[in-house]
TrEMBL record, chain A:
<protein>
    <recommendedName>
        <fullName>F-box domain-containing protein</fullName>
    </recommendedName>
</protein>
<feature type="compositionally biased region" description="Basic and acidic residues">
    <location>
        <begin position="212"/>
        <end position="230"/>
    </location>
</feature>
<feature type="region of interest" description="Disordered">
    <location>
        <begin position="212"/>
        <end position="235"/>
    </location>
</feature>
<dbReference type="InterPro" id="IPR006462">
    <property type="entry name" value="MS5"/>
</dbReference>
<dbReference type="Pfam" id="PF00646">
    <property type="entry name" value="F-box"/>
</dbReference>
<dbReference type="InterPro" id="IPR046350">
    <property type="entry name" value="Cystatin_sf"/>
</dbReference>
<feature type="domain" description="F-box">
    <location>
        <begin position="1"/>
        <end position="26"/>
    </location>
</feature>
<dbReference type="InterPro" id="IPR001810">
    <property type="entry name" value="F-box_dom"/>
</dbReference>
<dbReference type="InterPro" id="IPR036047">
    <property type="entry name" value="F-box-like_dom_sf"/>
</dbReference>
From TrEMBL, chain B:
<comment type="pathway">
    <text>Protein modification; protein ubiquitination.</text>
</comment>
<dbReference type="InterPro" id="IPR011333">
    <property type="entry name" value="SKP1/BTB/POZ_sf"/>
</dbReference>
<feature type="domain" description="SKP1 component dimerisation">
    <location>
        <begin position="109"/>
        <end position="156"/>
    </location>
</feature>
<comment type="subunit">
    <text>Part of a SCF (SKP1-cullin-F-box) protein ligase complex.</text>
</comment>
<dbReference type="InterPro" id="IPR016897">
    <property type="entry name" value="SKP1"/>
</dbReference>
<dbReference type="Pfam" id="PF03931">
    <property type="entry name" value="Skp1_POZ"/>
</dbReference>
<dbReference type="GO" id="GO:0006511">
    <property type="term" value="P:ubiquitin-dependent protein catabolic process"/>
</dbReference>
<dbReference type="GO" id="GO:0009867">
    <property type="term" value="P:jasmonic acid mediated signaling pathway"/>
</dbReference>
<dbReference type="InterPro" id="IPR036296">
    <property type="entry name" value="SKP1-like_dim_sf"/>
</dbReference>
Length: 409, 161
C-alpha cells in the first residue's frame, strides 16, 4: 500500500468496499492507532512547496508548512505567503502574551493538526499538482522582534484582528480578513463536508472568544490601574457568557447578533463558487451595516432593549445610557422632544412629551446613536392616553439627526 | 545451545511448512528480526526452528536474499541494488505474494520493501478491474456505487476504462 502512488491508490478505491475503507482510513492522519500506511504519500514534508488545483476555480498553495487558499485568479506569490506567515507569527505572539506559552503552543499544535487534516483532503482532491519554487520567505523583522504583549487589537464583524506593527485599521483590511475567513470556510465545506466545517468554525469562534475574554481582562486590569489616579466612569467588558445573553436578546428583538461567526447562506460543497462567497460577503457586510451602524433603521426595535446590563460596558454595540447628570437628562429630553415634534409635523399628530423612560447609546462612528424610549400623551384622543414612543437620534459633533421614531410596538 | 550463540559460525536449522530443512549460518539468519529476537531471548533451544507459514520454495528465496545481504553488508550498495532487481526479475505474482508474506512474518524489512514495491510497480498503472483479478478480489459494489466512488475521484481515472 505505502508503495503505491496516491493516484493509483485513489483509483483502487473502486476495486471493492474493503479497499475503499482501508485506503480512506489510512490516509487520515488521525488514525494514529493504525500504522500510517499512506502518510508517505498523503502528507508532504514541510519544505515541499506545491500548487494544487482543487476545483475549477479553487487553488491552494502548500509552502513553508502552511496551507493557503487562493482567491480565483489570484497568483501565488512570496508576498501572499509572507503575509500569511506574519499573521500566524503575530497571532502566536498575542496568544503567548494573553494565555501563556504553554497554552499558546497547545493552540499552535492544534492549528497544525487541523491544517494537516485539510491538507490530507487536498491531496486526495487535487487535480493537478505543480512543484513550485518559492525558496525564500522573508518576514518583516519588526514582527520577528515583536515582544509578546497585548498591544492593539480590534473587534469588528465578530472577528478579532491584530494589526501588524504600524498598520492602520481600514474597512479594506476588515473586508480582506472577512473574505479570508469565508474562503477558508468554503474550502473546508468542500473538503471536509458541511458538518465538519461548521464544527471547525464553531471551534474557531470559541477559541477566538477565549482570547477575546483574556484581552478584555487584561485591558480592564490595566484601566483600573491608571484610573485609580483619574477617577471617571469605569468601563467593563462582558464575559462571553454575558455577551451570549446579550446577543440572544438582540436576536430576539430582530437584530442579527453582533459577535456571531460568519454566516454563509449558500455554502454547500456542490454549490461552491467564489461568486457565491462574494455574494455572501456583500450580504453580510450590508447586513452588518444596516443592523449595527444604524441598528434600528430596519426593525425599529433593536437598540431599545438591551436588557439588564451595566452601563459602561465597552465591548458591545449598544449599552444603557446613564442619566445621572441633569445636563445629560436635558440633552436626551431635547432629542426626544425634537424627534416627537418631527413626528407630529409629518404625521399630523398631536403627541406631547411627558418624560424619558430609558435611553441607550451605541458608540459607532460616525457619531453616537441614542435609542430613547419616552412617555408621551396623545392630545388628539379623548382623555389624552399615554403611550411610549421610541426615537433613534444620531449625533455628530452636536449636530443631531432623527433617524427613526415610532410608537413602541 | 546458549553457549553456542556467541559463536558466529554456529548454524541453525529452519524447517519449512512442507517439511524441508535448511541449514543456515547464524549471521545470515540475523537478517530476520524475528529470528534475531528468538536468538536473543534464547527461545531457540530446539535444534530446529519451524516456520509453518513458509513453503520450501519461498524459504529458499528468502535465505538467498538474506545470505547475499549478510555477506555484502559492508560492500557496495550499488551491487546490492542490482542484485535485488535481478533477484525479483521474472518472478510471477504468486511467488511475489509468498515472498511478501514470508518477509513480513520473518520481519525482513529490506525484502518486504523491495517485494512489495515490485508488486506495486506491476499494478500501479493497471485499471482497477485488472487489479481485482490479480488479487482475486470479489467486486462487492453495485454498478451504481462503483460509478459514484469513481465520480468522486474522477481525476484519478483519466485515461482508464
Amino acid at each position: 500500500m505505502s508503495w503505491l502512488p496516491a493516484k493509483s491508490l485513489v483509483r483502487f478505491t473502486c476495486v471493492c468496499k474493503p479497499w475503499l475503507s482501508l485506503i480512506r482510513d489510512s490516509t487520515s492522519a488521525h488514525t494514529t492507532a493504525k500504522p500510517p500506511f499512506l502518510l508517505r504519500y498523503f502528507s508532504l514534508p514541510p519544505d515541499n512547496t506545491r500548487l494544487f488545483c482543487l476545483r475549477s476555480d479553487a487553488h491552494a498553495v502548500y509552502a513553508h508548512g502552511m496551507l493557503v487558499f487562493l482567491k480565483p485568479g489570484q497568483e501565488h506569490s512570496v508576498e501572499l505567503l509572507r503575509e500569511e506567515k506574519e499573521k500566524r507569527i503575530i497571532l502566536h505572539k498575542k496568544r503567548m502574551a494573553l494565555l501563556g506559552e504553554e497554552e499558546a503552543k497547545k493552540l499552535q499544535q492544534e492549528d497544525y493538526e487541523r491544517e494537516q487534516r485539510l491538507l490530507d483532503r487536498v491531496l486526495e482532491e487535487q487535480t493537478l499538482d505543480t512543484p513550485l519554487s518559492i525558496s525564500e520567505l522573508p518576514v518583516d523583522p519588526k514582527i520577528e522582534e515583536m515582544p509578546a504583549a497585548l498591544g492593539d487589537y480590534m473587534v469588528c464583524f465578530g472577528m478579532l484582528v491584530f494589526p501588524k506593527p504600524g498598520q492602520r485599521f481600514t474597512m479594506e483590511l476588515l473586508r480582506e480578513e472577512r473574505e479570508r475567513r469565508l474562503l477558508l470556510h468554503k474550502n473546508r465545506i468542500a473538503l471536509l463536508g458541511t458538518e465538519e466545517a461548521e464544527k471547525l468554525q464553531k471551534e474557531d469562534y470559541e477559541r477566538e472568544q477565549h482570547l477575546l475574554d483574556q484581552t478584555h481582562k487584561e485591558r480592564s486590569a490595566k484601566r483600573e490601574k491608571t484610573e485609580q489616579h483619574h477617577p471617571g466612569p469605569k468601563f467593563v467588558e462582558l464575559t462571553s457568557t454575558q455577551r451570549l445573553d446579550y446577543e440572544e436578546r438582540l436576536r430576539e428583538s430582530g437584530v442579527r447578533a453582533w459577535m456571531e461567526p460568519p454566516f454563509c447562506t449558500q455554502a454547500t460543497a456542490a454549490a461552491y463558487s467564489y461568486a457565491a462567497c462574494q455574494a455572501d460577503l456583500a450580504q453580510n457586510m450590508a447586513f452588518f451595516e444596516s443592523n449595527h451602524f444604524t441598528l434600528s433603521a430596519n426593525t425599529g426595535l433593536g437598540g431599545f432593549d438591551v436588557g439588564d446590563i451595566l452601563a459602561y460596558v465597552s465591548n458591545i454595540p449598544v449599552r444603557p445610557f446613564e442619566l445621572g447628570n441633569p445636563l445629560l437628562v436635558e440633552m436626551i429630553e431635547g432629542y426626544a422632544k425634537s424627534a416627537l415634534d418631527q413626528h407630529n409635523k409629518y404625521n399630523n399628530t398631536k403627541y406631547q412629551f411627558v418624560k424619558v423612560l430609558k435611553a441607550n447609546i451605541g458608540g459607532y462612528s460616525p457619531g453616537w446613536n441614542y435609542y430613547i424610549t419616552s412617555q408621551v400623551k396623545d392630545m388628539a384622543s379623548s382623555g389624552s392616553p399615554t403611550l411610549n414612543f421610541q426615537a433613534k437620534v444620531n449625533s455628530i459633533e452636536d449636530q443631531e439627526a432623527i433617524t427613526a421614531i415610532s410608537p413602541e410596538p | 545451545m546458549a553457549s553456542s550463540i556467541e559463536n558466529n559460525n554456529e548454524k541453525l536449522t529452519l524447517k519449512s511448512s512442507d517439511g524441508e530443512e535448511f541449514l543456515v549460518e547464524k549471521h545470515v539468519a540475523l537478517q530476520s528480526t524475528l529470528l534475531q529476537n528468538m536468538l536473543d531471548s534464547d527461545c531457540s533451544s530446539a535444534d530446529v526452528i519451524p516456520l509453518p507459514k513458509i513453503d520450501a520454495r519461498t524459504l529458499a528465496l528468502v535465505l538467498g536474499y538474506c545470505k547475499k545481504h549478510a555477506d555484502a553488508s559492508s560492500s557496495k550498495q550499488g551491487e546490492l541494488n542490482s542484485f535485488d532487481s535481478e533477484f525479483l526479475k521474472d518472478m510471477d505474482m504468486g511467488a511475489l505474494f509468498n515472498l511478501v508474506l514470508a518477509a513480513n512474518f520473518m520481519e525482513i524489512k529490506g525484502l518486504l520493501d523491495i517485494a512489495a514495491q515490485k508488486i506495486a510497480d506491476t499494478i500501479k498503472d493497471k485499471p482497477h478491474q485488472e487489479v481485482r483479478e490479480i488479487f482475486h478480489v470479489e467486486n462487492d459494489y453495485t454498478p451504481e456505487e462503483e460509478a459514484a466512488v469513481r465520480e468522486e475521484n474522477r481525476w484519478a481515472f483519466e485515461g482508464f476504462p
